[in-house]
Every structure is written in C-alpha cells, then in structure tokens.
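Q: Protein A?
A:
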Amino acid sequence: MKKLVLCMTFVLGFAVVVQAQCETDKLLEKVLLVQFAEEADIDAYDMAEFLSGYAQYRDAMDMMEKNLADARSGLEAAIAAGDSTAISSKMRAMMAADKAIFDAKQAAVSEASMLLDSAAAAKLALIVADLPKAKKALQDSLLPKAPCTMPAAACAAPAADAAAVPVAATATPEEEVMAAVNDIIAAIKAGEVEKVLGFISEDFYQPQVGDKEAVKEYAKMGKDMGYLDDVPATIKQYEAELSLEDTEVELKDGEATVYPIDAITNQGSATVELVLKKEADGTWRVIGGDAYGI
C-alpha cells in the first residue's frame, strides 16, 4: 500500500517500510474482498465460506509469490553469470511459477463463483485479475482531502516542530540540504521518531500520504503495531541500508529535490525522492516526495 509505504519512509525508516507494507497490503486486500462480498449480498453462511476460501487462497498465494520471486532471482543470477545451461532451466522455473499463480487465481474465481450470480462472479474475476488496481482504487477512496488553499492566516497552521540546529551559514544550499538529509537518515536509523517528525514541515503534503497530521497518525500506528520497539534491530534483521552515492540536489523556486535515495533490504528495494524547503528558522524540512519501485 503505497500510501503507508511513503509515510513510513519519512517516519519509521526503510526497513520498517518492508514489514509494514506487507501487513497493511494484506489488510487492504481483506477489506476489499469483504466490501465486495457485502455488495454482492452474500448471506452470513456463505460469507463465512467465502472468507475461509480467501484465507486458503492467500496462504497458497503467499507461497507461490515467494516461489516466483525466488525463481526470478535465480534467473537474474544465471544471466549475470552468463551460464546458458542454468538460464534455460531457471527461465522454465520462473515461467512455471508464474503459471501456477495464474492457475490459482482462475481456480479461486471458479470456486467462489458457486456462491455468486454471474455479474458478481465477473466482477470478482476483474478484481482478481488486477488486485493492485482494485486496491489502489479502494485506497484512493480513503485518501485525505487536499490541503487548505486559503491564505496562510485563514488556514492558521500551527508552529513548526523543533528540529536539528541548522548547519553553518558558510555552507552552500546544496550542502545544507544534504546535511539535513543525513540528519534525517541518522534519526531514522536510531528510531528517533519525534526528531524525524521535526524534519517534516507543517506545509508537508503528499497526495498518497496526506499532510503532517496524517504522518503523525501513521507514526502512532507504527508504535502501536510494535514497529518502533527496536528500529536498529529491525534494520539489522532486514539488512537495510540507505545509499546516497548517486544522490543529487536540484534547487528550484526555493525548493530542493533530493534524488535518488536508494533504500535496500533483503526483502526488496525502493528509490526515494524528497522535496525540502528552507524555513524561517534556517532549517530545511521535508514538504513532499515520492517512492518508486515498490
């Protein structure tokens, strides 16, 4: 669920993102199917059977998706090694894993269709055919409204949170921005949530995340779900690292775009873009951004 992923990227750290994304995405999928079942007017008895079938499907799909990911990794390794014999076998394994997922989706729809009329069965087939699209549509329906467009005085935004002391005035704007990014990363790695929040502007807004208040809510959610109990240990568990090796700063109209920030874990990777602006106290704070490759 990209909405949560983006927010966790800013607040909880990239290793936590991987864990949170998985659990939240599954929850969103359940909500989507329960919503579908209610719209299809499935009675209580059939609803129990429908959800039981979904649980079995999800368990099987988790295993098959892991098999596909492993097969893809094996093929990529064989290609990198230039091993033509292994390439052929690994490619067949990946195609077989991909077909198994397709067949499982078809079988699940066919079984569920016994509880549905033809129109509902067709709708379910469309949902299963592109679950990411269906979940995105549900996600969008739950997104917060756009930020206040009234004059600043009318919106009455609260004062900015305190953050780290700005770097020396002799630094270039690019150096100031990178110093702020490094401070953010250090706070993330240490699990210092309040310090990270201090680097997020009151003007923050990201269409798939919301405003700063939404970020705070996700931070609270992360605490409640235990993702912040020991962030350094979680980072170690997921072998997470952040790379600024290729990162560049682009200054335009008083804003700084920082990209790419590469986040790598043993569960996958993402590339993050941050947009910052320098505020009245001299601190560069995050006002937006995005995450790619999720």
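Q: Protein B?
A:
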Amino acid sequence: MSEKRHYLFKSCVLGAYYPKVEECLRIVFDRLGIRYFDDPNQSSCTGHGYHSGIYPFKSTLEVNRRNFSLARDAGCDDIVTSCATSYATLKEVKNFLGDSIEVFHGSDVIHKNRDRIRGRLEHSLEGVRLVTHHGCHYAKIFYKDVKVGAPEHPMLLDEIAASLGAEVLEYKERGLCCGMGFRHLLLDQEYCKKIAERKLTSMKKVKPDLILVHCPGCLLTLDYFQAILEKETGVEFKIPVMHYAELTALLLGASPTEIGAAAHHTKIDRLIERIKG
C-alpha cells in the first residue's frame, strides 16, 4: 500500500443514495493526514452493470483502462475504493491488464491506521454491541487476498470495530449475502427481500445496537429493506446500519450532518446521541 498518495475511487451507489457518506473517507484521511487525489474525471467502474450481466467485460475493461490511466497520470501508485464492488471489478481489470497499480479497499487503509485512529478519537464505541457484514465482492471473489480472517469469516471490520471500543457479536448467518444480488435486484426483488429478511432476522437474535457494513450496496439493502420488511411482515427490526467510513468519521468528530445521517431509512439519530454522550 502506497505511503505517498492514494487515488480515491468514488462509488456511484454512495453518490446516488448516501452522498455524504462518500465524503466520510475524505474526512478520515484528512484527520489522519493521509494524502489522496480526488479526481473529477473518474468514471464509474461499471461494476453494477457488469455483475448484473448488462455490460460485457470488454466495456468494463475499456472504461477502467481509462481509470487506471487517470490514476497513473495523477502520480498515484494505488487506487483506494469506498465500494466492495469497485474493489473487485478493478482488481479483475488489473489482473487482466497486468497493471502495476495496486487496488485496495478503504477499510484496508482504516485497518492499517486503526491505532492512529484510536489515538485521535473524540468519541468511542464503548458499550456499543454491533454485528459486522463484509461485502461479498471484497471477501469472496479475490478470496486469496483476504488478509484478516478467512473468506467465509472475514474479520477486518471486527478488528476495526474492536479497536474503536465496540463489542463485536457473532451471529449464525454471518456469511450470507445481504440480499442485493445485482441481477436479482433488477429482476426479482422478492428474492432479495427474502435473503435480507433471513440476514436481518439472524442479526436481530443477538440484539445488536448497530450493523457495520463494508459496501454501499450492503448499506442500501440492509438499511432500505428494513422499513419495507417491517411493513410487509409486521416484524420490527429497527437496527441502525452504518458504513465503516461513516462511523469512523463520526468518532473522529464529524457531525451528523457531515456524515449524512438524515439519508438513512432506518434512523441512526439515537445511536449517534448515545455515542456522542
């Protein structure tokens, strides 16, 4: 991982649904003095269309060949994504091209700097019980690159959360997809809701205060589907869901407005009040 300057790769899902969360990684990097380049010319990785079977790999390849060129022209040795799907898509393109630029997930950078973050915290997660959900496109595609834990039991977010003071809980369906499923989301949302319900039901059994997620798609699915499932099934979940960058920025002193708390479908206001004391 480069110590010089990261090429910060933006997420189209965060940009569309949780735009303030997109800014949280920048807030964290700024607080830590980590250098990055935020390029307005960056294109989408096309991951949503590619993994939904809409875009052929050739189109994805050419779009991201340009993105790699932009990162190189910016003098960056690596690309850091806020999104697990971008991470997997860019790694696939990198391997196909044999490109020298490395690809990392934003949580990799936060994990590497977790001790520095702990020393700068304005708030902690002491007393907060949470469950984690790692993105499938982070852990299950390039499974040999999972450095913390195992592909079916990644521990990266767990170690980050523990370093921030939280109690991390285990639950039965830890390895299950959030339910987004890309192509399924477009063609069969009932199937997606069934998977999300199974996941949330398993989480609810251990009574967490928070679901900490890795991926914008997982944030959208577990946050958005809670309200729908509560109306359709009559079962109340009301478990706040937060993206790792959003939570880290909050603990480093960012305000609820700065992290975009109002964009959440399942409200996180009470959790924020509790964390801020």
